[in-house]
Amino acid sequence: LDFQALKQLVRDCENIVFFGGAGTSTESGIPDFRSAEGLYSTASGEKFPPEMVLSRDFFVKRPEEFYRFYTSRMLYPDARPNAAHQALAALEREGRLKAVITQNIDGLHQMAGSRCVLELHGSVHRNRCTRCQAEYPLSTIVEAGGDVPYCPECGRMIKPDVVLYQESLDQGVLRRAEPYIEQAEMLIVAGTSLTVHPAAGLVHFYEGDKMILINKGSTPMDGLANYLIQDSVAKVLAALTADE
Ligand SMILES: [Zn+2]
Question: How would residue 37 be classed by pLDDT, with cut points 50, 70 and 90?
Fold first, then answer.
């Protein structure tokens, strides 16, 4: 099957579901921290892997270090949607894309105009007081400048609504995602190494024969794909949905 034929297949499809990860946002300048090498040095000179800093325990015990890392490495308030986000939003407007299921926390799908977005790992745009549950936008965290943000209402610490290590995924979101994948005619899986569970297990709910897997490197689930494209997500999605 050549690219033109695959393009036609996408064009003829009325029930597409997208499942994406970090690779969807790399062209927006947001690095995949899981593939980033190295250790994080704290103010006191200690070194920790990012997976430890972004854990529930670390957040509770060392919120100052957590926020120093989180604010400088996880937040990209100036990032804008790229061709991948735009292509998916256009497919949804045409009524052919039913849902975007994402492991990303950057909110770029919504910024591009996507409406049905299921965020498995939460969003940097939602932040909640750990005591009174008051909600705060990303700007509240950014304005704290890397310091711990406190709730102006009650003085308690604010926590980003993102899923940390040691925390489980939002079961409600997971449960909503499953039927979309199960009923999809075409599943586009993109920019994810498919190694993070249980999110990666979602792929197994797909029952069709039009799974397109787009990722720069190989994944443990390459064998499940009906069409495998090892390239940039933004480039491939833009080309797959282009008019000409
Ligand atoms: Zn509060």
Answer: low
